[in-house]
Design goal:
By secondary structure, this protein is of the alpha+beta class. It is built from four helices and eight strands; from the N terminus they run ααβββββααβββ.
Length: about 170
């Protein structure tokens, strides 16, 4: 006489085997979900920059305050944009000379005195330097404008669409 599924599961060997298999599947699903989310977290120690007016971009330390020298060229921060799943360089940013100099001094003093660099620099950026930035569209012929006028930038994807989001960190 054939055994019913319930009878097979009640058999300790089969029940334990099914339980182990279900736990293994759950562990695989959890691991995949957890590690795929971890890989999407931005790297808060790095930003995107460009040293060719937005033709390309690279990653470097968040403590490089643009504009700065990179391989003999002037680098500025690059902000990527996403439109319909396609990434492109949306706009460029740099600090005014006064804000850049003050940020560099805050950073150098914090390092020299063993103070919490990230907190000191971020606090200063939020309080002062963030208002002393300039932005522009990539490519020649686009002027630098104060960040307070960022709404006048007409950021468009290569196909002419508006961006869905902006990304500053890798």
């Amino acid at each position: 006489m054939p055994m019913s599924l319930r009878t097979k599961l009640n058999d300790s060997k089969v029940g334990v085997g099914v339980a182990v298999a279900l736990l293994a599947v759950a562990a695989i699903v959890f691991g995949h979900y957890y590690f795929s989310l971890a890989s999407r977290r931005p790297d808060v120690t790095r930003l995107y920059y460009s040293d060719d007016d937005g033709q390309s971009y690279f990653k470097d330390s968040v403590y490089k305050f643009p504009p700065f020298e990179h391989d003999g060229k002037t680098a500025v921060q690059a902000v990527l944009a996403v439109s319909k799943g396609h990434y492109f360089l949306g706009y460029l940013m740099r600090y005014t000379p006064q804000a850049r100099e003050a940020l560099q001094k805050k950073y150098d003093d914090a390092v020299k005195n063993g103070l919490p660099v990230q907190r000191i620099v971020l606090d200063y950026m939020a309080a002062v330097a963030g208002n002393e930035m300039e932005v522009k569209l990539p490519g020649s012929g686009h002027p630098w404008i104060p960040i307070s006028r960022i709404s006048t930038l007409d950021v468009r994807s290569p196909s002419g669409d508006l961006p869905d989001q902006y990304i500053t960190q890798p």
